[in-house]
Amino acid sequence: MFALTACAVLSGATSLLAVGEWIADAPGYVLEQVGADLDPLLPRRVLPAETTVRRLLARIDGDALDLAVGSWLADRRPKASGLRALAVDGKSLRGAAKATGRKIHLLVALEHATGLVLAQLDVGEKTNEITCFQPLLGTVADLADVVVTSDAMHTQREHADYLLARGAHYIVIVKGNQKKLRRQLKFLPWKDIPLQGRTRGTGHGRSGIRRIKVATVNSLLFPGARQAVQIKRRRNDHKTGKTTVKTVYAVTSLTAEQGTAAQLAELVRCHWKIEALHHVRDTTFAEDASQLRTGNAPRAMAA
């Protein structure tokens, strides 16, 4: 039944009613491939009704389902060359909610190279993304030598300690929630550090240039920090004619030998692939438009 539901969603079904209709009309070869049972009396396969699908998804253990899906994908993902990286970020399902009215907020770990979601966790009502960071990555079997990227919310010393203890690395953006660290980064002698990379990009009516400088460090106020990163972004909006310049700071546990300036720039840039995932889930799979309220069905449909 789960396989049929997944096929229905991948085929464009964005509601349980649509899932039920798709299953009822599913091609025979699909039913055979997913192992739908044959009716012992009639020359047809036994298919679940929409009400059956609804009841099952409402009762399913969402954590167990996310773990099973993540493990299944991890076992089948293509092996990527170079640095392996996971992006961690949160995603709210604006339309769907629990029966209590609480909106569902998920924390997701997405592999940079493949775009696969290898872990997903419901951020409960009495917790937040920060406290769910370690439990989320705890469901990923092997983090050795994996680089975890995240936004400034997850620039937390406890997160860094956890990743280092598991043999992983990090590169994190530093903003106002780490004021002393950001001050340290801001006052490094960047003027004396040569430019180590420049990239150009265009899209969505904008063009931009990113310049990166990297410095080896050993006394920053952050566990395991080995390199400091400064990225200057200059963006031109062709519709408004407005030009903006923004300076971003980051730190990483990767040494200069483990992560070059070009690789660090790519890690930061590719972290935002997770935003593209959110966009696909919102537009293609209509997650934000979902009005599901029953049991764990909203969570199950997001798996």
UniProtKB/TrEMBL annotation:
<feature type="domain" description="H repeat-associated protein N-terminal">
    <location>
        <begin position="2"/>
        <end position="73"/>
    </location>
</feature>
<feature type="domain" description="Transposase IS4-like">
    <location>
        <begin position="82"/>
        <end position="299"/>
    </location>
</feature>
<dbReference type="GO" id="GO:0003677">
    <property type="term" value="F:DNA binding"/>
</dbReference>
<keyword id="KW-0732">Signal</keyword>
<dbReference type="InterPro" id="IPR002559">
    <property type="entry name" value="Transposase_11"/>
</dbReference>
<feature type="signal peptide">
    <location>
        <begin position="1"/>
        <end position="18"/>
    </location>
</feature>
<dbReference type="Pfam" id="PF13808">
    <property type="entry name" value="DDE_Tnp_1_assoc"/>
</dbReference>
<dbReference type="InterPro" id="IPR047647">
    <property type="entry name" value="ISAs1_transpos"/>
</dbReference>
<dbReference type="Pfam" id="PF01609">
    <property type="entry name" value="DDE_Tnp_1"/>
</dbReference>
<dbReference type="GO" id="GO:0004803">
    <property type="term" value="F:transposase activity"/>
</dbReference>
<dbReference type="GO" id="GO:0006313">
    <property type="term" value="P:DNA transposition"/>
</dbReference>
<protein>
    <submittedName>
        <fullName>ISAs1 family transposase</fullName>
    </submittedName>
</protein>
<dbReference type="InterPro" id="IPR012337">
    <property type="entry name" value="RNaseH-like_sf"/>
</dbReference>
<dbReference type="InterPro" id="IPR032806">
    <property type="entry name" value="YbfD_N"/>
</dbReference>
<dbReference type="InterPro" id="IPR051698">
    <property type="entry name" value="Transposase_11-like"/>
</dbReference>
